[in-house]
Inverse folding.
């Protein structure tokens, strides 16, 4: 059985499921990117079985482990033990929740992999503290919960939840993001910045990888509510 699937130049995905309260099940994706020096950048690690872990090691040496938001950190301590030489980069709240993490730092735009993967901590939000990324070589925009593209549901509860948040079998941003925004101008600037990236695919934690000819237009439409009243930001790009 092959655990890691190559989905773009120097990018592999590992897919798993996670059970949430009330019997909700989400598919979840971890990403490994091979850097120019052969090291690996590991985004949102899952609970890898031993075979999956060994397969990951054949792809390269894990140099960086990334906990990209305040919620995707459950298996970061295990990954840190599996790869004790790796640096762990986290959302600020993760360091408060996972106090035993060693060799750790807070995500920012100033990171060691910046020449190959751009890092953008989203501003003006409550709670989530998500950072998003752009892998230059493959032209891939990588996020966690910022958008969904979920078409398969394990049970009725999960389908009902995704319907309620407006993300049932379509590329969408969950309606809960409207509650998470506290400073619209800051997150509007962030989405305008993302639209300045020349991406041709979106890799999110939940749902299918999105690759379409009009992908940037799709993202612009999905996040247009954020920039309402701030449309000049796109003109400035």
């Amino acid at each position: 059985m092959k655990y890691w699937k190559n989905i773009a130049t120097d990018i592999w995905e590992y897919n798993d499921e996670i059970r949430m309260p009330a019997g909700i099940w989400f598919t979840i994706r971890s990403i490994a990117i091979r850097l120019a020096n052969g090291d690996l950048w590991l985004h949102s690690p899952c609970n890898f079985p031993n075979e999956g872990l060994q397969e990951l090691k054949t792809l390269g040496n894990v140099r960086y482990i990334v906990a990209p938001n305040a919620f995707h950190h459950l298996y970061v301590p295990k990954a840190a033990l599996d790869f004790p030489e790796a640096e762990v980069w986290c959302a600020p709240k993760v360091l408060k929740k996972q106090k035993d993490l060693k060799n750790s730092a807070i995500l920012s735009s100033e990171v060691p992999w910046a020449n190959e993967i751009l890092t953008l901590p989203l501003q003006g939000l409550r709670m989530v503290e998500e950072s998003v990324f752009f892998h230059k070589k493959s032209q891939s925009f990588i996020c966690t919960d910022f958008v969904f593209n979920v078409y398969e549901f394990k049970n009725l509860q999960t389908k009902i939840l995704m319907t309620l948040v407006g993300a049932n079998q379509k590329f969408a941003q969950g309606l809960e993001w409207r509650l998470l925004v506290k400073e619209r101008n800051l997150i509007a600037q962030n989405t305008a910045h993302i639209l300045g990236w020349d991406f041709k695919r979106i890799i999110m934690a939940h749902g299918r990888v999105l690759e379409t000819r009009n992908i940037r237009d799709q993202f612009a439409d999905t996040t247009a509510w954020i920039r309402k009243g701030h449309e000049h930001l796109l003109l400035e790009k």
